[in-house]
Amino acid sequence: MAILCVSLCILLPWIGSIAVWRCGNNHPRLQHAVASVFAVATGIISLLLLLNPSDAPIVRIPMGDFFGELTLVPDGLGIILAIIASVVGSLAVIFSIDYMRGEAQLGRYYALILFFIGAMSGLVLSGSMLLMFFFWEITAFCSYALISFHNDDPKAVAGGVKALIVTQFGGIGLLLGALIIRSYIGSYQIRAFLAAAPTLESGVLSAIGFGFLLAAMAKSAQFPLHTWLPDAMEAPTPVTALIHAATMVNAGVYLLARFYPAFEAVPGWKTSVMLVGLLSALLAALMATRSDDIKRALAYSTISQLGYMIYAIGVGGIFASMFHLLSHAVFKALLFLGAGAVIHAAGTRDMRRMGDLSKGMPVVHATFLIGGLALAGLPLANGFFSKELILETGLLHGPRWALIGMLAGAGLTAWYTLRIYSMTFRGKSSEFRVVHGAPLAIRSALTILAACVLTTWLFAAHFSSLLADSLPYHSIRVTTNISLVSEIISAPVTYVVLLVIVVGGALWLFRDRISKVLRIPAPVMQFLESGYGLEAPYAAVVRITQQASRVLCAAHSGQLNLNVAGISAALCVVLTLLLVGV
Amino acid sequence: MAPSPVNILLVGVAALLGIGIYGLMVSHNLIKLVIALQILVKSALLGVISAGFVRDEIQLAQSLALTVIVADTIVAVIGIALAVQVRRRIGTLDVRDLSKLKG
Amino acid sequence: MDSIAFRWLIAFPLLASPCIYLTGRLGQRMKRNKVAQVVGLASLIAAWIPFLLSTNDYATSGTLLLRLGNISLQMDGLSLLFIGITLVLGTLVTLFSESYMAKEAGQEKFFAMLVAMIGVMIGLACASDLFNLWIWFEAMAVTSYLLVAFYRDQPPSLEAGVKYLVQSAVGSTLVLIGISLVFSQYGDLSLANIRQNATPSPILLAAGGLFVIGFGVKTALVPLHTWLPDAHSQAPSGISAMLSGVVIEAGLIALLRCLSSLSDISSTWGVLLMSFGCLNMLAGNLLALGQKQIKRMFAYSSIAHMGYMLLGLGISYYTNNPNGAQGSFFHLINHGIMKGLAFLAAGALLYALRILLNRHSPLHIEDLAGAARLYPIPALALSVAVLSLGGLPPLAGFTSKWQIFVAGFETKNVAVILLVAFAALNSVLSLAYYTPLVNVLYRNKPSKDVLIGGHIPWSMNLPLIVLTLLIVLLGVWPTLVDGITASAGQALMRGVVDVSSVALP
Fold this sequence. Notes:
- The structure holds 3 protein chains of 3 kinds.
- Chain B has helices at residues 5-26, 30-54, 58-89.
- By secondary structure, chain B is mainly α.
- By secondary structure, chain C is mainly alpha-helical.
- A two-stranded antiparallel sheet of chain C has the order 1-2.
- In chain C, strand 1 (64-68) and strand 2 form a beta hairpin.
- The chains are: A mainly alpha, B mainly alpha, C mainly alpha.
- Chains in contact: A-B, A-C, B-C.
C-alpha cells in the first residue's frame, strides 16, 4: 500500500502530463479538466503518505554498478514536502483554470506543471542521491520551460535560460558531492552516507558540504546566486506560486536539512550557512521595500524568508526551519495567487498603478490580508509561530549579532508587507475599474489556502513527532502544541519581535515624515536598486563567454591552407610532447 | 657517420612529407593541392617500402604499396572530379575563393 | 570461432551496394524511380539478420573470427557495439532519405554509396590488422567524400567536399606513415602481435603520435576539426546524421584499436586523450554558442561530445580500468542516437521548409519560429534530442555523461576530478545554446518560412519517433545496454585478441 502511494505520487502526475498533452490544444476545457483531476488525485494520495512513514526504503530498483540502487524513502521530511508539492500544486492547477483561460498551448503548460509536481515529490522522497539529482535536474528543466512559457516574449525566454544556467551551475555542487560520496563509500544511499559521514576525512567532508551549500544557494536563490529569481517572475503567476515560492526553491533548504547531521561538525559550515541565510534575509528584504512590481517584491520576499529557513539550519534548528518551510509554502503561495488574481484583473504588475482594490475584489482582499499577516509574523497566522520558533532557536544556539540581523529583517518584512498590501488594496483609486470579483476557481483556491494559513500551525506536534521518528540521524525534539504555544508566548524574544514588527509597520506608515528627516544619498539607493552590484559578475561572465565564442568563430576563416597548417602544427606539438616525454 | 640506406630512405620520407605539407599550405590552385596530396602519399609509400626493406619483408611491403597506390588513385580521381565541378559551378580553381563557409 | 553469420555480415552490404546501383539504373530506364530506395532499405533490413545471428554466436562462444587468406577479421565486444549503432542509424537514415532525396538526380548512387559506407564501417570495426584497418578506413573516407559533396550543383557543398577531402587525405597519409614506422619495428602488422611484442621506443611513440593526429583528423580532435562544420552542415541531412553519429566515431574506434596495441609503451596516451577531450569540449561548446545555422551548430556540438567520449577513454587508459571506457562507449551509442535524431529532425524541417520549395539556403534558428504547431513531431523530436544532448534527465544524454563522471571520480585523482568538474561545467554551457532553440520552436507566432512549408511524409516521421523513444528509454533504463558497453570496455582494455588463441568472451 505504501509502495503504491509513493510510486503514484510521482507517476500519477506524469501520466496526467502525457494525458493532457494527448488531449490536444483544440480541446482546452478537456485539458483543464484532465489536469485538475490528476493534480487533485495526486494531492489526495500524497496525504495518504502520512499513514505509513518509514525510514527504510520501500521502493528499490537496482540499476547496475554505476547507477546504484534507486530507492524511495517516505520519511517525515520527504512526506511533508511531497504533500506541500502535491497539494499546493493541485491548488495552483485549479487556479489556472481561470487564470489561463483562453491562453494558447495549454497542453504544454499543464504537462509541464504535472511533470514538475511528480518530479518534486520524487526529489524529496528519494533515498538515493543519484535519483535525487535526477529529479533535481528535472525540476530545473520544468522551471525553465514554464518561466519561458510565453516563448514569443524575449524577456521570458531570457529569464528562463538564466534561471536554468544559474541553477544548473549550482547543481554541479550537488553532482560533485554525490560523486565524491559514491567514490568514498561506494553507494549513493543517503542513509549510508549519514551513517558513514563521521568516518570520512575532514577535507573530503568539507568539499561535499560546501558543494551542497553551493547547490542549495543556487536552487533557493540565496545571495549571491539569487539574481535569477526576480527575472523568473515572467512566468505565469500560478507557476510562480507553485515553483518559485512553495516548492522548487525549497529544494535547497531541503538539501541542507537532509544532510545537516553529516556536515554539522565540518568547521565553518554551520557559520557559512547561517551567514548565507542572514545576508539573504536582510538584503532581499531591503530590495523588497523598493520594488514597484508586485511579483518582484514578493520574489524578494521569498528570498528573504528562505534566508530565515537557512539561517535556522545554520543554528541547528531543523524542526524550526521545516516548520517555517511549511508555513511559508502555504502563505507565499496564497500571496502569489492573490497577486495573480489582481494582475489578471488589472492587466499590470506595477503597484503604482493599483490601489483601492479592496472593494472590487473582496475575497482576494481578505485572503491576501491573511497571507500578509502570516508573512509579517503576526499572531494566529502560521507565520507567527514558525518565525518565532526560528528566532528563539537563534537566540538559544546562535550568535547574538546574527539574531539582531534577523530581528531587523523581521522589521523590514513588516514594512514591505504593509507596503505591498496598502499600495495594492488601499490608497488612492487605481487607474482601472474592476467590474467583477475574481472568478470561482480562483476564489476557491485562495480560500483553501487562507484556511491552511490559519490552521497549519496546529499540526506542529504531529509534524515534530513525524520528523523525530523517521529521521534517526537528526536529533529532533518532539513537542506538543501546548508546549510550543506556551514556549512562544512565554519567551521574551517574542515580544521583542512583535515590537520590531510594529516599528517596521510604523516606518512605512510614517515614511513621508521619515524621509524628510532622513535622506539616503542617491548613490546608495542606486547601489541598492541595482541589486548590490551583483548583476555585474553575471553580465561579465556572459560577456566573456560570448567574446571567446566570437574570437574562436573568427579564427575559422575557411581557408584550406590555414586548416592544413593547423594539422601540421598539431602534429609537431604532439610528436614533441611524446618524444620529449610528458 | 656514413649514410646507410635506411637513413637515406628516412630522409627521403621526411623530405617528401615536408614538401607535400608545404605544398598544401602554400598552393592556391586546386590541381596543385591534389598534386601536393599525391606527393604526401608518395612519402608514405616510400616509408612502407623502406620499412619492408629494413625488415626484409619486401613481398609484404610491395603488396601493401600496390594497395595504397590503388586507394590513393581513387582519392586523387575524386579530388580532380571535385575540382572540375568547382571550376564549372564556381568558375575558379583558386582555393582562396572557396572560403564562403566560415565561422 | 568461425561463424557463417559473421561472413555474411561483412559481405552482404558490400555485395548489396553495386546491386542497388545497377537495379536503380535499370529502374530509371523503366521509369520506376523508387527502385534504388526500396532495394537499399531492403538490403539494410536484411543485413540485420546476419548481425543478430552473429550477436547470438558472440554471446555463446565469444569473439568471432574470420580468415580470408592472409586477412583476418574478428568481432569482439567493441565491434558488436559499433556495428549495432551503425545498423540502427543506417536503417533509419535510409528510410528517412527515401523521401528526402526523392527529387534529386543520382539517387541510385546515393543509396549505393550509403550502403557501401555502412558495409565498410562494419569491416572497420572488425579489423584486427593495422593495414586492413587502414584500407577499411580509406574506403569509408572515399564513400563519405562522395556523399558529402552529393549536391554537386551547390557551391557550398562543393567547397565542403574539397576541404573535407584534402584534410582527410592528409590524415590518412599520416596514419600510413605511422603504419610504416610500426612495420619497420616488427615486420608484422597484426594488432595482437604488436601488443604482445611492444617495447618502448621513440619510433613507436612517433607512430602513436602519427596515429593520434592521422585518425584525429577524422575524429575531429581540435585543432584538426576545421573540415567538420562545413561537411556536416552541407551534406544531405541523412548523411549528416551518419557522419556525426557513426563516421567520426569510426575514426575514434580505429584510433583506439591502434592505441590499445601500443598501450603498454607509455602511459601518456591517456593524458593525451584527456587533453584533447578538454580542448574539444571547450572549443566545441564555445563555437556552437556563436552559430545561427542549425546544422552548423549541431556539427560543433558533435565536436564537444567527442570531447566527453575522449575524456572517458583517457581516464580508462590512464588508470587501466575499463569503467571510463564503458561510460564513453555508452556515450557513443547515445550520441549516435541523439545527434542522429537532431540531424534527422532538422532535416525533416529543412525538407519541409526548403527542399520542397526548391530552395537551398541553410536553415537558421529564427526560421523555425513556431514550428511546433505545424510540425509537432519534428519539433518534439528536435527538442528531445537537443535537451538530451545538453544532459538533462530523464533523457539518455544524462546517463552516459553520469557514467563517465563516476569513472572519473573513482580514480580519486585530483586532476581527473577537476577535469570531470570542467566537463560538467561544459555541459551547463551547452544548455545556453540548446535551450534557445527549443524556445524558438514553441513560439506561438510562426515564422514566414514555417507558414509556407510543405508536408512531411510518415517515412520521415517514423525514424524520428523511433529515435525519440530510444532516447527516453535509455534515459530511464541505462542498464539496458550495460552488457554491450561492458564487453566493449573489456575488449578495449584487453586489446585485439591473437588469432590463433582460444576465443575469449
